[in-house]
Amino acid sequence: MRLAEEYVRLRSHWYEQGEQQAFHVTIAELAAALCCTTRNARLITARLVEAGWIVFVSGRGRGNTSVLTFCQSWTQVALDEAQERVQRGDVAAALAWIRQPHMPEQVETTFMSWLGEYFGYTTGHSPQAEQSETLRLPIYRPVVCLDPADAVFAFDTQLVDQLYSRLVEYRAEDRTLLPGLAHDWECNANGTQWSFYLYKHIRFHDDRLLTAEDVVASLQRLQTGQFAHSWLLDKVTAIHAIHPYTVVITLREPNYWLPLLLSHSGASIVPQDIGQHSQKEHALPIGTGAYRLIERTVGRCVLERFDRYYGTGALIDRIEILIVPEQEAAVALGNGHGMLTILTGEWDTTAFDHLPRQNVQTGVSMLILNRRQGILAKDEALRQALYYGVDREALVAAMGDTYTAPARGLILMNETLKANPMRWIAPDITLNESPQGIANTPPVDEAKLNTHHAACSHPSSEHSSTPCMEYDPQRAIQQLQQSAYAGNELQLYTFQRHEQAAYWLREAYRRIGICIAVHIVSWSDMMSEAILAQADIILFEAVIGGELHRQLEYMHSNRSLIRRMLPQELLTEVQPLTHQLLRSLPAVEGNRQGQLDREEQEVTSLSASTWLGSIHALLQGTYSAVFLAERSAGIVVPSFLRGVHMNERGWVDFSRLYVVATEEPAESNRMGNEDENPS
Q1: Which 3-state string (H, E, C) describes 458-514?
Q2: pLDDT tens string 159-201
Q3: Cα–Cα distance list, 344 to 176, 424, 649 (Å)
């Protein structure tokens, strides 16, 4: 509201003047306070008088001053404006507004209390006079992309899963493939042709019926190679609709993982005219998911229950997601009681230690080193200094909370965290398997495997306290002395949520003689070619919970931070390993591979554990990555909310949430009390 800004500007200029206290001013002084011309100052003053916020008596005659009286509460005007900004979906602007110079202290205190009350559960009535439930959630990262083919960040893919559907769905809890848009699927004997049979009468959010042509168009769009998830359809030669509800996918080589790959968020089905739709001004995504998107701004996304969803419908009518700046997360929540609060490491959560929470392991914090250009591309001794020069146990102790254990590679070793009642499901992974002897697959270079030292041969007992990644500061210094490093700063880029860890690492490396310059960039900027060209090191969390989807994505997606920093010679070694993996059967229920040529399958297959061991050998043995710590996400759940299940990415399926009322809630009132838990 522009008028509130002008009023607060005047109050800030004459902050010593109280309400109902007349004082003398000149029109020139008003213009200076409002940063405008005298003509505009008169116009603004007239609007403020009309609103009843000031009394202004113009001076009569040359040299006579005017008299100004403030009538409206400065605190109330500021609070109303801040609340209106939040309700418009701009929390960042509201926080900046209340922190202007000379703003009364009680404004921020009162606003923060209101903001904590604003988030959470409310009820109202729909236009059809039915009760409508709304859940407002604070999220501490931006929404970057909602195009399934290009969405790579964990929260983006979480929203994609709510808005779109896939041919096949994957349930990580019991590692089962379930019908999605397809009620059945099957492949031929050698795994080179898959048929998917679609449900009828499925509708997009704009009420159009979905047909096989939409599926074909969606997958052919991925095939163009321009998207982050085009890798999902590698070796696919043809996609055809042989019937309005039957799609046939033909491959150049056997791929028994195809149904599992098609459960990836990147394979979500979009309308066949998505190209035309996305070019429309203010166009919103259209899918077939349990929620449809009805509003998206920089600071807010609003999801509304899609009543014509073909599956089990969402149970909460409306989800409002407000983007809170990462640096404001703690103050924005206050005590957070009565909110569903997702804890992903952006802020100190000790205030929630007394509240019950769920935790799930989500990924590994790591440094990926630039092997394509710059000093680290060729200087292995310097890369070894970076590897040996960081004490991962000390890092975990210093960061705490979501840092759960020293990393052992691009894997998560513990099935569950002690505080987490849910199972974490993963392939049977062991890095002790040798990648040699795989039929038709070039073996990993023996010399590279031999450089693997203890890091590639971790203890088999999950209870072992031996850290997998070796910390050896003396060896780090020796390698540094043998390197070509001349003391110049290495450029480390990361996101704001990793800022504390970045500066901890800078200090740790300084102690062994390596200078690090830390750069904090936005989520979208990190993906730019300019940033990647400047970066010697990128610090990020590789989200790898669940099935092997994510590790495959990091090695094959053209938007992966890992792949984009690796040299071509390493990528060339990855490709044949993956092709052999796809010839094997994934250890999931419901793959429906039909009658296989078992002899062919046994000869050419590569287990998931062996593939992962080989990838680990490539990254670790060439010192292309420095794995730091296993990470977790947590969630604090209010007592009235049910259906809360954290997925492998550390987020919650909104469509499964529902409210249990212990008493009749008042309209538009949070169901919360001092004993309830936030999120």
Answers
A1: CCCCCCCCCCCCCCCHHHHHHHHHHCCCCCCCEEEEECHHHHHHHHHHHHHHHCCCC
A2: 999 999 999 998 877 888 999 999 999 999 889 999 999 999 9
A3: 27, 17, 10
Among 428, 411, 552, smallest CA distance to 469 is for: 411
Check if the beta carbon of residue 159 is closer than 8 Å to that of residue 284: no
Residues with Cβ within 8 Å of residue 66, at least 6 apart in sequence = 24, 25, 26, 27, 30, 56, 57, 58, 59
Write phi, then psi, for 398 (nearest 5 degrees): -75, -40
Report the sign of the C-alpha dihedral through residues 428, 431, 433, 434, in that order: positive
Work out the end-to-end distance of the chain between its first and last CA atoms, rounded to an integer number of angstroms. Answer: 30
Is there a contact between 590 and 170 (Cβ–Cβ < 8 Å)?
no
Tens-digit pLDDT profile for residues 658-674: 988 765 444 434 433 33
Q: Hey, which residues does 549 pair with through a beta bridge?
A: none
* Length of the chain in terms of residues written: 679
What are the percentages of helix, strand and coil residues in the chain, rounded to 5? 35, 20, 45
Q: What pairs with residue 318 in β-bridges?
A: 134, 304
- For residue 517 the two structure tokens come to 């310059």
Please tell me the pTM assigned to this model. Answer: 0.82
Euclidean distance between CA atoms 97 and 78, whole angstroms: 8
Q: Which of 635, 628, 630, 629 is nearest to 419 (CA)?
A: 635
Concatenated DSSP letters for 18-32?
-TT--EEE-HHHHHH
Average pLDDT, rounded, for the chain? 83
- Supply 552's token pair: 């495959």
The pLDDT tens digits of the residues spanning 77-130 come to 999 999 999 999 999 899 999 998 888 989 998 998 888 888 888 888 766 657
Q: For residues 476 and 390, what is the distance between their CA atoms, to the nearest angstrom?
A: 9
